[in-house]
Amino acid sequence: MMTPRPILSSLRRHKIAAFLIVLEIALAFAIVSNAVYLVMGRLQRMDIRSGIDERDLVTLQISSAGKAGVPAAEADLAALRAIPGVQAAAAVNSLPFTDSSWNSGFAKTPDPNATPYPVTIYLGSRDLLPTLGVKILAGRGFSSDQYTDLTPATMLSSFFKPTQVIVSQAYAEQLWPGGNAVGKLLYVQKAQGQVVGVMSNIVRPQLSDSGTDPANFYAAILPFRVGPNLGASYVLRTAPAARERVLKAAVAKLQAMHPTQTVTKQATLSQMRRDYFRDDRSMAWLLVSTILALLGVTAIGIVGLASFWVQQRTRQIGVRRALGARRVDILRYFQTENFLLATVGIALGCAAAIGINVWLMAHYAVPRLPIVYLPIGAVALWLLGQLAVLGPALRAARVPPTTAMRAA
């Protein structure tokens, strides 16, 4: 078994080279660990399930100029449902993967000092849930007579006083963990509302940095109809293959019905998802490129220093071979040496990785680096070091003892 004593003795005679390798591995470990964590976070965000049938949906919006309130929206929806291929249509105040988000907060007690639980509010026509593909899991939906048209006047007088609420499964679990939310009371500004139903999760329009954050699904629906005058969009359900045709026909229909207004938005939900995560994709590619470049530079550095060491220690290799060392012993010597240097570098890199993460948490609200990334990074750097040193070590092992002694 290879003992570390002769290796340590040799390293003491090459302190600068050993220090450079340790420093290089420590920096690579610290940066790569955090970069991989950030990449995984971006991938989790991009892979988040929205809770709606994205492949079947298109959306469009007309300008809010004029008196395009709820009656106009109902007339528009009737015309849009008549387009061949449209399976359902609804108006909605906001959709996932947009910059428009209506947010509020409900408390579980009427105490005005009670902490409200933040939630995204979705509003829309009665067909909103089936159009989006959101299901009622417990309780019931709203009946037709429970809806109120949301206007600038009712928005001030009654919007913040909901009498009935449908909450998402994630929001219900946050407020009443493990319990039944149906029938429970919620409070906002001293007004009381009752949870009549629990729906499947629908993602909030604006996501947190973490794709696994349950708060991304804290949503509620109130029985208010909205029109384009308050920024509502139309969302249409159709077969995936018919989306482009239906969208084009819907735009033509709305332009014919509202010649003085313009269609300000038209897109499939799939397009909206791609656009929403464009920055995340770019960031992920940038980080992956940085990781690969850094690992490549580290590997090249190890190869270069290992090759230099092999050249510097040709006499030492020759003496060892002359004393009976086999080729495999020379190979193990350099691999063990690299393993020891990598271990020291990884130990220093762990401290540096945590320090970088603390700095990122303080300045960029990055979540805490999970401890599991450290052993994974350690294994990766150990393997990288072993692969990088393999070439120089093999060349050293192939040097005949006589050649090594003459070279010295």
Low-pLDDT segments: none
Q: Quickly give the structural class.
A: alpha+beta
Sketch the topology as an H/E string, one letter per element: HHEHEEEHEEHEHEEEEEHEHHHHHH
Q: What Rg is obtained from the alpha carbons, in whole angstroms?
A: 32 Å
What does this structure look like?
With 408 residues, the chain is of the alpha+beta class. β8 and β9 form a beta hairpin. α1 crosses α11, α2 packs across α11 and α2 packs across α12. It is built from 13 helices and 13 strands. The strands form three sheets. Strands 3, 4, 5, 7, 8, 9 and 10 form a seven-stranded mixed beta sheet that branches. Strands 2-12-1-13 form a four-stranded antiparallel beta sheet. It has a two-stranded parallel ribbon with strand order 6-11.
Keywords:
alpha+beta; seven-stranded mixed sheet; four-stranded antiparallel sheet
Brief synopsis:
The protein has 408 residues and is α+β, with helices and mostly antiparallel strands.
Please give the structural blueprint.
Blueprint lengths: L3 H9 L2 H32 L10 E6 L7 H12 L4 E7 L10 E4 L10 E6 L5 H5 L3 E4 L8 E2 L2 H6 L6 E5 H7 L9 E4 L2 E9 L19 E3 L2 E2 L7 E6 L4 H15 L5 E6 H8 L1 H35 L1 H9 L4 H38 L8 H25 L3 H7 L1
Parallel strand pairs: 4-10, 6-11, 7-9
Antiparallel strand pairs: 1-12, 1-13, 2-12, 3-4, 5-9, 7-10, 8-9
Helix pairs in contact: 1-11, 2-9, 2-11, 2-12, 9-12, 10-13, 11-12
